[in-house]
Amino acid sequence: MRKAAPQFIVVEGPVGVGKTTLAQRLAMTFNVDLMLENVADNPFLPRFYEDPKAVALATQLYFLCQRARLINPLKQADMFKPAKVADFLIQKDQLFAGVTLNAQELDLYYQVYNHMMLEAPVPDLVIYLQAPTAVLMERIYGSEVEYVKHISEEYVQRIADAYVAFFYHYHDSPLLIVNTADFNLAAGADDYNMLLGHISDIGPGRHYFNP
Description:
- The chain is an alpha/beta fold.
- It has helices at residues 19-30, 45-50, 52-71, 92-100, 103-116, 133-141, 153-168, 190-200, and strands at 8-12, 33-35, 84-86, 125-130, 175-179, 206-209.
- A 6-stranded parallel sheet has the order 2-3-1-4-5-6, with helices on one face.
- Strand 5 (175-179), helix 8 (190-200) and strand 6 (206-209) form a beta-alpha-beta unit.
- Helix 3 runs antiparallel to helix 4 (92-100), helix 3 packs parallel to helix 5 and helix 4 packs across helix 7.
- It starts with 7 loop residues before the first strand and ends with a strand.
- The mean pLDDT is 88.
């Protein structure tokens, strides 16, 4: 019999990797609450993909405020709330800021970020999804969201590289690194069931799943 899921699972990875799809599937499998950032609500995002420099700060601050609202109920004192699967780690907000903002904008961003004093419970497990940039671009171009197709390959590569650097130094939670290049996140059973086995048996430290 499969053991219960960790109480708080976060699925992360660069744009196009499928983190929201996997988070939804895991929440359904384990019958737990799902916490998603609603990217489509950001009114600056369509213009950002066409002209990133023009609205980078506004785009980033909108996401920061949205993520802050989502994690605000997840204070350490509230850990008796139902188990959750989320498709974002609050610390990754700084990752995107570092890639998209210039020095002056980044300084203002950190003033806002530090003023918010963001806190969230440490996840019981972080699942970091990876894929080659070519695969990410293929998935982005296959998206039903038209404006996301304006995203440049150079930007996607920079974000992917920033994720690699971020998780190289990440030690707050058990970390499962998943190669999704040949993993159908939306359907299929074999690879997914193998992933569930890894999740159920995971221990401290860094782990890898390469179906």
